[in-house]
Hints:
The complex is a heterodimer of chains A (235) and B (186).
Chain A: H1 7-25, E1 26-28, H2 35-38, E2 54-56, H3 59-62, H4 65-84, E3 93-97, H5 98-113, E4 121-124, E5 137-138, E6 146-153, H6 157-169, E7 174-183, E8 190-193, E9 196-205
Parallel strand pairs in A: 3-4, 3-6, 6-7, 7-9
Antiparallel strand pairs in A: 1-2, 4-5, 8-9
Helix pairs in contact in A: 1-4, 4-5
Chain B: H1 3-16, E1 17-18, E2 25-26, E3 33-34, E4 37-38, H2 41-44, H3 47-64, E5 71-75, H4 80-94, E6 100-103, E7 116-117, E8 125-132, H5 136-147, E9 152-161, E10 176-182
Parallel strand pairs in B: 5-6, 5-8, 8-9, 9-10
Antiparallel strand pairs in B: 1-4, 2-3, 6-7
Helix pairs in contact in B: 1-3, 3-4
Amino acid sequence: MIPKLDEKLKNDMIEQLHEYIDRHCLFRCNPDVHYNECCPVGKLPTTYRKDMSFQFFLRRLTHNSKMMTFVSSLFIHDLFDKMEQGLEYPNVQLCGLESSSIPIMIAMQAYCSRFNISINSFSIRKERKSYGLFNFVDGIPTEAPVVIVDDIINSGKSIMNCIDCCKYELNLKPAKNSYSIIKFNNHMESLKYKENVIDITSIFVVNDFNIKYDESKYWLPKDCEKIENKRADYF
Amino acid sequence: MNDDVIFIKNMIRSRCMITPSHNIMFGKLPGTRYSRQYYLANALYDQRFLEAVARQFYRTVEQEIGHFDFQITGREWSSCPLLTGLPILLKQLYNIHINSFLIKRERKTYGLNNIIEGCPNQLPALIVDDLCNSTNSFYHCEKTLAAEDIPQLEYIFAILNKHNSNIDTDKYCKKKALYIISGDQL
């Protein structure tokens, strides 16, 4: 079995994760910049707001092996603690929606392998493949209950998508717990969807971060399409 | 062939070579049909497979490139398990640190319209993928890296080269293809 995680080590990991996200994964829009130049526009047309002033780039964290080891150890220890308390099933497998969750699942598997524990995972697509096997799922699911993981949980739609796919495509039961690095809603302890109630365990909530513009923390990704439109003083 | 290559070969043969009973599948392009599909995603989510790939990656790089002063990249999202798994496992197994970042198929349509996920550094990039067939994904990565002024290594890496011999990578990108197993070995 996995040994207990030392509380001091756990707090240290959370602190380092917070520092990394704050420095590298949180884009704070400069209020002096015209919005049509670089303000993040929301995913849906209705979410376009002129005051939308930040965006999380958590893929920067999920492609950092050190940070992913921290994330996976926090998730795995929490999962196994709950299993020991009888709140969870003895065997579980991991699943997530498309590419945002893949690094988390792979890192959790790698962390488990340190303790000779094998844990299965598979990835769910948003849409069926349009050729070949027309599959919804990458990987080979087993019959174990499914723990859903994601990088950020906002509306919970990706979890709902996973639940639907597990239930109606694969005939699998979702486990009681799901994991994310950040959740948007402080009060979102669990998600009710159809007859399922899924507990959401997150390392951080958005309120843990100062999302206001800070000159010392302002950066832009170099591959940003509109970078040529930026004013010279932002480089 | 060492034990890892034999294990990878057996996993691909048992899990990833899909031949449907009706013997035909719709292809990617209009009018095309597949009688067999290599679907490496069925193995990439298996930890033992990924560990064997990491060990073989280490051996191949040590033999062919001779150093680990590079970062890895690949096109979403077939290479995603490799881009996460290889840095973590190389650190665990050999204490080697490798940076990785992901290249999107298209720019994001919202937010900052970025095409790269992750933090590229100054080291040259090695393009990795699960399967080497038309080399379209390598070509896409090469173009994106050039546009973003990220230096490139003169090699590409794939787990499976679908063709029987070393592919003619000159057709698209003038790089040497490193792979673990080729079509004629299956």
